[in-house]
Amino acid sequence: MTTKEPLLRVVNLQKFFPARRAGFFGHSRGTIQAVNKVSFTLNAGETLGIVGESGCGKSTLGRTIMGLYKPSGGKVFFRHKDLGSLAGAEQIAMRRHYQMIFQDPYASLNPRMNIYDIIAEPLRTHRLAASPFELSLKIRELMDRVGLPATMARRHPHEFSGGQRQRIAIARAIAIKPSLIICDEPVSALDVSIQAQIINLLQELQRELGVAYVFISHDIGVVRHVSHRILVMYLGGVMEQAATEQLFTAAAHPYTQALLSAVPLPDPRRERQRQRIILRGDLPSSLNPPKACLFQSRCPHAFEPCGKTPPPLDTITPGHTFACHLPHSR
Amino acid sequence: MPLLQVEDLRVFFHTYAGVIRAVDGLSFSLEPGQCLGVVGESGSGKSAAMMALLGLLPQPPAKIHGGRALFHHQDLLCLPKRELRKIRGNKIAMIFQDPMTSLNPYLRISTQMTEILTTHEGVSTKNALSRAIAALEQVGIADASRAIVQYPHQFSGGMRQRVMIAMALLTKAEIIIADEPTTALDVTIQAQIIELLRSLQQRYGLSLILVTHDLGVVAGISDHILVMYNGRLVERGTVEDIFYRPSHPYTEGLLQALPRVDQQHQHLYAIPGAPPLPTAQRQGCSFAPRCPQVMPMCYEGEVPWVAINQQHQYLCHLTTELKEGAAR
């Protein structure tokens, strides 16, 4: 364990959304706790995977870190600076260092801009090219790096396939050499054969540029493959956090265990012999989540204290924590 | 005798951009009580083939250019619409990715479930309702008599999919064709639905065709698997053949491209390039431009089938002898 300050430190981050009835005078029906007291750290050049099912708040978490949503509570420290306290020129200068990639690159690329201008935009915004010639050189280099032929520079997003569009989004994100990229389901819309190309590209870029990723995905196989550490979320809260291999060999939280056992394996013999933990019922509404432990309504081990007090964050080994009332020596 | 036998099915779409050969010569058979997995990436023709069998493709632009689909001595592709309607949703049920598109949002679940029985089988409303409630209980919906009077939007995605399965049970369907039934669901719900299909299949001897892009989903439940690429069947075999002895370079690549939860530090093999445009002229093997073992002859002429045994075959110029030679 190093004592140096990590690249990104998220402390008790919260994001609540008011839930209103339809209409102008719609009155509040309460709040949706999309992200509730999430804390983690991420070192430079590493990948933190965030997994969970739909509605668990993983995308909201990514967007809140990016500053696309204003946090309802908690802090985000990036390179020692509290992002919430920055403003003006300082804030813009800091934004150079973190970027985001979305699931649907078609929605995040302006359909009226050609690829050249899309990739040039961050370079122009941050004035990172001294001359138009230098700009064109940089763009050619970036396109080449992500595997797009430079001859395609004047084309528009609709002329590209899903995998190529994701390459464009990646080129735009790495254009200003950020030290952190938040990837929100970057490969979920892609077919398996194309998905592998994009994952490999992201990993190569990490090795070359030393960029850190917050990798948000519902696909546990993909997250295992890319992440150094993994955070498991459920209904806005963190259930478990551990180094990747630790999580897959010694998952402690009943939710993590169920989640891992639910993933189908492409291996017929093992798949037939496997004992699955089948969870009861559906995800509760995030408008009205269970009190105390969020997972109690579906937990196979739920017992008395689960409905009374929020589970404490238990540390099993350094870096491996889980939120549960059960002792981990089950 | 197989329950459903499809021979040389060809479905083309005639569009302004050109002819799309969505399904180009698909043959397979489904034995009673078996589960057949159909895997392929988007645009491989897996859904189009199933829709064509049930007459669900709008014609035009779709046109069936040939083939036979025998089900109880009847060719589904030649049946008049009225006759097909008696089979579809009745003897052959279909479950789609998004159950909301197959359920009418304006009608209560009870109305939609009893309708089939009252119109087709002339069952009394009261009887139909109790049978519908029983079917919902069989698919694991708690408090079925209360749930049945609700509307589809009051159900979660997983519960809607259970309703679709219950409807198939209600008509005593012999075949359920499930097209990406769990793709829109979270993994813990997906596990519930797959488990349900598996147990119903065993209990009632249902035959199941499971169409999916997810190789993991078919591994645990299928007996046989068809692998499709760009409208063509490229490999077929038992589930063990496909997962442990994949022979077509595409199947091999696909399995190596899959990030797995049960392996650490795995190297992902990325199949280079992208599938051809659907309107592209077809000559030779359509996987040739992406194939790591491509040979000059792959770009022209007909690609032959290589039979490893009675059940396991693949569409490729690479014979088993050539492959062994390359391995050495």
Keywords:
heterodimer, A: 330 residues, alpha/beta, Rossmann fold, 8-stranded mixed sheet, 4-stranded antiparallel sheet, 11 helices, 12 strands, 32% helix, globular, B: 328 residues, 12 helices, 23% strand
Summarize the structure.
Chain A is of the alpha/beta class.
Walkthrough of the structure:
The complex is a heterodimer of chains A (330) and B (328). Chain A is an alpha/beta fold and 330 residues long. Chain A folds into two domains: 8-21 and 30-97 and 184-323, P-loop containing nucleotide triphosphate hydrolases (Rossmann fold, 3-Layer(aba) Sandwich); 111-177, no CATH class. Chain A has helices at 58-66, 88-95, 105-108, 115-125, 132-145, 162-174, 192-209, 220-226, 244-249, 254-262, 268-273, and strands at 8-20, 28-42, 47-51, 73-78, 81-82, 98-101, 180-184, 212-217, 229-234, 237-243, 313-317, 320-323. In chain A, α4 (115-125) runs parallel beside α6. The relative contact order of chain A is 0.14. The model of chain A has no long low-confidence stretch (mean pLDDT 88). Chain B is 34% helix and 23% strand. In chain B, the strands form two sheets. Chain B has an eight-stranded mixed sheet, sandwiched between helices. In chain B, α4 (109-120) crosses α5 (125-138), α5 (125-138) crosses α7 and α7 (157-170) packs parallel to α8 (187-204). At the A-B interface, α7, α8, α9, α10 and α11 of A face α8, α9, α10 and α11 of B.
